[in-house]
Design a protein that fits this description.
single chain; alpha/beta; Rossmann fold; 7 strands; globular; protein biosynthesis; NAD(P)-bd_dom_sf; elongation factor; Elongation factor P 5-aminopentanone reductase
Length: about 250
């Protein structure tokens, strides 16, 4: 079993929001970090600089999570540099807000491809290394809506529910190989994904949450970090929801 400082973590969608907070949390512990992004080149570099300032070795790399070929090239490029992630954080994803009656087939396919297919492809491509060394962590960033569902977010809720089922099933498949698979399903987090809500809607939402506020990205990152620890080896197949008591 590796110590945490001997490991490498790959964070998909790591350029901003929760992904950037996760990268910085690992960087603070001296973990080797790979920040994946699609188009946010400057944001990825900005996050990388912050991680390097904390003393971490950092790489940034771009790939479309919807494309097997691009993710395969990403894996091979990392391997050519001697980088083989021991911890995979499937954080990359997009949201969708609107009535199901208004969802187009193209919108459905796109959100499904990013949120579910991307997680599937990344896990499939990077887990063989974990299996071969009999150690690894796969942590999927889901959502409270994958547990309870949300009106006007049927498409997004469906992808996150699928992510939770994927987590439980793959955890059973990989447990004999020493690889844990868990999901973190946050409630409302103060990120760009809340931009669809105006001030009145935000205030109303906060009132529904027993702790009376949104989560910070750092709070979610701390849970992801905990699940990556070598001593978290007995936690697998779990959907853990930091939601301020919103859903119990």
């Amino acid at each position: 079993m590796k110590t945490l400082k001997e490991t490498t973590v790959l964070i998909t969608g790591g350029s901003r929001g929760i992904g950037a907070a996760i990268a910085k949390r690992f960087a603070a512990e001296g973990v080797n970090i790979v920040i994946h992004y699609l188009n946010s080149h400057e944001k990825a570099n900005e996050t990388a600089r912050k991680c390097m300032a904390l003393g971490a070795n950092v790489m940034t790399i771009s790939a479309d999570l919807r494309s097997y070929d691009q993710l395969l090239r990403m894996r091979d490029k990392l391997a050519s540099h001697g980088v083989r992630p021991d911890v995979l954080v499937n954080n990359g994803g997009i949201s969708h807000y609107g009535l199901l009656a208004d969802v187009t087939e193209q919108e459905w396919d796109n959100v499904m491809a990013v949120n579910l297919k991307g997680m599937f492809l990344a896990s499939q491509l990077f887990m063989p290394h974990m299996i071969s060394q009999r150690y690894g962590r796969i942590i999927n960033v889901s959502s409270v809506w994958g547990l309870s569902g949300a009106s006007c977010e049927v498409l997004y809720s469906t992808t996150k529910g699928g992510m939770n089922a994927f987590t439980k099933a793959l955890a059973k498949e990989l447990a004999p190989s020493g690889v844990t698979v868990n999901a973190v399903a946050p409630g409302a987090v103060d990120t760009e994904m809340l931009e669809n809500f105006d001030a009145t809607e935000r205030a109303a939402l906060e009132q529904e949450i027993p702790v009376g506020r949104f989560a910070s990205t750092e709070e979610i990152a701390s849970l992801v970090y905990f699940l990556s620890l070598p001593e978290s080896s007995y936690i697998t197949g779990q959907i853990i929801s930091p939601n301020g008591g919103w859903l119990t």
